[in-house]
Amino acid sequence: MTNPTEILPGVIFYSYLATSRKEKVAFMEHNTLILQVSGLFKLETATDSISMGRGQMLLVQKNQLGELTKTPLEEEHYQTIVICLQEDLLRQIALEEKIEVTHKYTGPSNVLIPGNDFLHAFFQSVLPYVRNPENKITQAVGLLKVKEAVYLLLDIMPGLKDLLFDFSEPYKIDLEKFMVSNFHFNVPVEKLARLTGRSLAGFKRDFQKIFGMPPRQWLLEKRLSEARHLMEKKNKKPSAIYLDLGFESLSHFSHSFKKKFGKAPTEWLNEDGVSLDAV
Fold it and tell me: From CA 56, how far away is CA 52, in angstroms rounded?
């Protein structure tokens, strides 16, 4: 979430927008519960595309990369309440309640939560802290609120126990499949290693075996090749694609493209936006 209001630092957030915003790279490090107060929320990951509107709730599994689109609607600003279910607190709950997970969670990574009066009432109890920011929520009360959210989730959907209380290290996933699906996200190599269940050294070693080059070199070449494809086959303009392909700036993209293909992206297109090589 970009520039949200922290109700409880690092744990409970409130987001308000009057204009649309897209966040290309969102790294969901913790299991996260989201209530859409108003407006439209959209999450796109390599495997999911989920939208929700007023009153809907979503549980997002930890360790995901995604793109967030936050859209106010006519006469309705964008508002969300976000609760990060941090692992330390979940471990504490597991100990207190003697919760044990015996099965690896295999359900969807992002779960829309059915409407429930008790869970909606819980979120309503958080709103006064949003409307009265001068009355700060105490750490003790804030953590009690998070615990309440967890207990309500388990009451509504007991099967979420396996998702919430999975404290195992990420297992090694198919590196080639993951990278081909997620190359456009502009995140550090260290984070990519973690998401694939590898140490940084193990990630680099496995990457070299699969792709025959270091991760940063492959990422740059993959993004540039995709840019050329989008320009040639889809008539996309450089300014419309560089962020979506993981480049930090248009100048960085243009410099890298020219170094790779011998001419700048703008030279690749004629005045009508058609690839010169396709004419």
Answer: 6
Q: Which CATH number fits domain 5-164: 2.60.120.810, 3.60.20.10, 2.60.120.380, 3.20.20.140?
A: 2.60.120.810
Backbone dihedral angles phi then psi of residue 189, each to the nearest 5 degrees: -60, -35
- CA distances to 116, 187, 242 from 184, in Å: 37, 9, 10
Reported as a pLDDT band with limits 50, 70 and 90, residue 115 is confident
What pLDDT is recorded for position 269? 65
Residue 276: pLDDT band with limits 50, 70, 90 = very low
Give the mean pLDDT of the chain.
Answer: 86
Length of the chain measured in residues: 279
Q: List beta partners, residue 118.
A: none
The answer to whether residue 23 scores a pLDDT higher than 60 is yes
Write down the domain spans for the chain: 5-164, 175-278
Strand, coil or helix: 152: helix
59 Cβ contact partners less than 8 Å away, ≥ 6 residues apart: 31, 32, 33, 34, 110, 111, 113, 153, 160, 163
Q: Which two tokens stand for residue 91?
A: 């471990």
Q: Is the pLDDT of residue 109 over 60?
A: yes
